[in-house]
Write a structure and sequence with these properties.
- By secondary structure, this protein is α+β, with helices and mostly antiparallel strands.
- The chain folds into 2 domains: 152 residues, no CATH class; 127 residues, 2-Layer Sandwich (Nucleotidyltransferase, domain 5).
- Helix content is 42%, strand content 20%.
- It starts with a strand and ends with a helix.
- 31% of the residues are buried.
- The protein binds zinc ion.
Length: 342
């Protein structure tokens, strides 16, 4: 399995050097763009990666880059061009976030320093690399901070030892409710901080606004990682309702949905489930709130008007239901049902 490990560059004094190297990379990128335009006009041919390498050969010394960096830029250029199926890609200018790719042989790592093309950069060595580096890059985020990324081959994740079967109901009030009664609370930082972001924007403090936004995104992702980790370690079957968040974002519940980050939660769950060999199913959540999980009678709260109803009593069997737990139990039952059909 290939994974990328990212470390923040320590000294702010390294920034000018990195920026200079990144500008050299942009130069190579723009040269590729130009060569492509030229080639298309005069030869009616798309230059390949090999063509681009030939054209840029020998330029690395003058640019102060490692020769493999120049090749890596060419490679990336070709990949992107194929991906977007465009005659030309966007130029890299002063505003493009800095990016300097490298191959393993182009760098040397010692404790918390990385040597590249005669420069030494220190980084915050927050966690150990689990294996040898294959390749990587220096990159800049939207806040103009520099990072070094190492691409590493890591051993496969161990299969789950969990035995739980869990159904998950995604909601607005709580991010997710599990069929065993556990509730995963939706973090509301975004909405709480929304006013602060708006204030920053109003006062034209775009840097602060961006910082705050990045912080919220980071915390939300961290939270979702932890929750999906825990679930995939505990379970051998996870069934989730196929709620379509794009539909709800159009209503006035948009902020709440964005807050919860359902889509990201589902993505994380599904890929971690695959890695840990957990059975993961999505089922239609139609009627899951209205059906009694005890006797299958339909009598629960309906639609969006019923959102306020948190608890209800089944008219047939008199069972008292928590709205979301009942829905999660129905989702789990539907999951079992679809698995049995197969
Ligand atoms: Zn009932």
């Amino acid at each position: 399995m290939i994974r990328t490990f990212r470390y923040r560059i320590k000294d702010s004094s390294a920034a000018p050097q990195l920026t200079k190297l990144a500008q050299a990379c942009s130069l190579v990128w723009n040269f590729c763009n130009e060569s492509q335009e030229h080639a298309l006009r005069w030869n009616q041919q798309w230059p390949t990666y090999q063509d681009l390498c030939k054209l840029t050969a020998g330029s690395s010394k003058e640019l102060g880059l490692h020769s493999q960096t120049v090749q890596a830029v060419c490679e990336q250029y070709e990949t992107r061009r194929k991906q977007f199926k465009k005659r030309k890609l966007r130029w890299r200018g002063k505003r493009s976030p800095g990016w300097i790719p490298f191959k393993a042989s182009g760098i040397k790592i010692m404790d918390d320093t990385v040597c590249y093309a005669g420069h030494t950069f220190r980084f915050w060595n927050s966690r150990e690399l689990p294996g040898p580096v294959k390749c990587g890059s220096f990159s800049q985020d939207s806040r103009q901070r520099w990072y070094v990324n190492f691409v590493v081959e890591v051993p496969e994740t161990e299969a789950t030892t969990g035995t739980k079967h869990i159904g998950i109901d995604l909601g607005l009030k709580t991010l997710a409710t599990c069929s065993d009664g556990r509730k995963i609370e939706a973090p509301r930082w975004y909405r709480n901080q929304q006013r602060r972001i708006a204030e920053h924007q109003r006062k034209k403090r775009s840097r602060q606004a961006r910082n705050l936004q990045a912080k919220i995104a980071h915390r939300r992702k961290d939270f979702l990682h932890k929750e999906s980790d825990r679930l995939t370690k505990e379970c051998e079957l996870i069934v989730i309702g196929d709620v379509c968040s794009s539909k709800l974002t159009k209503t006035n519940m948009a902020k709440s949905v964005n807050d919860a980050g359902w889509a990201m939660f589902k993505t994380l769950l599904s890929y971690k489930a695959i890695a840990r060999k957990v059975v993961y199913r999505e089922v239609s959540e139609r009627l899951s709130t209205q059906t009694c999980s005890g006797c299958s009678a339909i009598g629960g709260p309906k639609g969006r008007e019923g959102l306020g109803v948190r608890e209800w009593v089944c008219g047939e069997c008199n069972a008292v239901h928590d709205r979301d737990v009942n829905a999660a139990m129905n989702i789990l039952r539907m999951g079992h049902h679809t698995l049995a059909l197969k």
